[in-house]
Amino acid sequence: MPDVTIRTKPLPRKQRVLNRGYLYSRSSDDNVKNPSVTLMDMDSAIVSYFDMVIKPSVEDNGENVKVPIMYASPERWKAIQRDGFMRDKNRQIITPVIVYRRTSIEKDDTVPQDKLDANNPHMFYTFEKRFSSENKYDNLTTQIGLLPQREYYNVSFPDYVTLTYDFMIWTAYIEQMNKIVERITYSDGAYWGDPDKMRFRTNIDSFTDATEVADAERLVRTNFSVTLKGYLLPEGNFDHRSTTQKFITPKKVIFGTETDSAIENNVGRAGQFLEDLQTTITSQGAGDSAQNIGISLSYPLVFNEGTGVTLSNDGSEYDGGSRLEQQIAIGQDVSTTSNVTFAQVSASSLTLTGGTVYEGSTVTGDINITGSLVSTGDMTVNGNMTVEGTLTAQEFHTENISSSIVFSSGSTQFGDTLDDNHTFTGSLLVTGSYSLNGSSAMTEISNDTTLADSNATSLVTENAVKTYVDNQTDDQQTYLRKQYFKTTASITVPATASFTAVTASAPSDLTSTSKHDFIFFINGQYMEHDAIDIQQNGSSLLLKVNNDSIGYDLESDDEILAIGKFNS
């Protein structure tokens, strides 16, 4: 029997006790309120903007009438969707009027924000409280060099969200509707809200107009939606921490000073220290460069040309007293990408790129020949030979465990291993039987569309299989496509529900109809198959429920829906 989850009811609201000890307070004299932005603030911003900026109004009987705007509760919105208009307490149709509701809230991914931990954020916006009892100048602090204490507050970064709202406008005349739509359209893309409080950028989608007649009254209705770019910042996180943190700077900051010096020795050109030169002590970063000392050689160097090598200054002496430049050159470029020409090359072996070695009469490695190769004697290949063109010969002999010989007459003997593959182009005629991987010998290819012989040594054609399947699918398709739903005719408490229906019979070649061909829902909730069973009783289908397994009893007012293979 499957495990049954035990559910407990939540406590009534009046029995819940708020632990005031979890409420967070920074200090008793801290009068800075935690900033917060809630969904109510964004809902109210729309009403404020309509009342204070858009100010929708219409002309009615020579008077300027203000158009009210109201937030629709779920019950009111459902009534509007059902009736198509609103009524007051006297059952009179309200016009003109603007009604709206919030339809969705989504995270705004266009403004990435990562607070590391939403319940303990580490990213803040910092602002300074300019004036307080601790933050002021007086004569004493100015004379002794004390800075005023500054109060800073770190406010957690909000979560940026996108809210959508649906609006409906009703007026009695098209001229009235045009005036309201014009003022709303002009506010598209603006920041909506109380000018003295928080405002949010909004965008208006297209307007949909309709004219209705209800109770002999003519109504003009316009629907549109608004997208609001908002942000959420609760007063405290879920760990009872404040979203605002207070910091106070110190009154005095003391800095220490240090002085460094460096000793620099004069050195000669070759890097040796010279004892007779004056040592200079300078401040760090301000020293003079060392004295340059010239060197002269008693025995100068002489460069001469050699075989295949030329010098720009052949035979010149170099004693260090003056600058001498020598350019060494050879007869041709011998880089790895150059074309090098020699009259004659003698070597015991020749190694080419790729590892091919020519030594005596032996070639080690791979050799690629572009053109023709003519051999007047025998050719022995110790490795593999690949011929991408046509190989013409009078007779082929292979000497391996798996061998095949093709004779000049056309007769062929094939190998006996799995890797001995043979490809044919044309027709293959077999007299007798054939087998595959040791299977039973096949004697024929049959085109019998009825498959009546049930021959174990025959292979059937595609036409025979298709024809047979097509002839068998009518009844199967009719059965497989059956899908009807039924509701309970009666319920016998606590474990039996009756349906006025007959189950469909499966064709002979399909599995018989069972409970797995049906799905049952009780009051909209799926019923597990391992907790139920079905039984056909005449013209009624009985649903048997295992109360211990499913975790509850059936009641007379339950609604059970069955979907599955009924006859009709």
What does the model show?
The strands form 11 sheets. Strands 3, 4, 7, 8, 9, 10 and 11 form a 7-stranded mixed beta sheet that branches. A 4-stranded antiparallel beta sheet has the order 26-33-29-30, with no helix packed on it. The relative contact order is 0.08. About 6% of the residues have low confidence. It has 568 residues and is an alpha+beta fold. The chain is built from 6 helices and 33 strands. Among the domains are: 147 residues, STM4215-like; 54 residues, no CATH class; 83 residues. The radius of gyration is 49 Å and the shape is flat.
Structural class: alpha+beta
Q: What's the helical proportion of residues?
A: 10-25%
**Helix segment tally:** 6
Q: What top-tier CATH class of the domain at 39-110 and 159-233 fits best?
A: Alpha Beta
Q: What are the segments in which pLDDT stays under 50 over at least 5 consecutive residues?
A: 18-25, 265-274, 279-292
Main beta sheet strand tally, sense and closure: 7 strands, mixed
Shape: flat
Strand content: 25-35%
CATH architecture of the domain at 39-110 and 159-233: 2-Layer Sandwich
Instruction: State the CATH superfamily name of the domain at 39-110 and 159-233.
Output: Myoviridae tail sheath stabiliser
Mean pLDDT: 75
CATH fold name of the domain at 39-110 and 159-233: STM4215-like
Tally the beta strands.
Answer: 33
Separation, N- and C-terminal Cα atoms: 34 Å
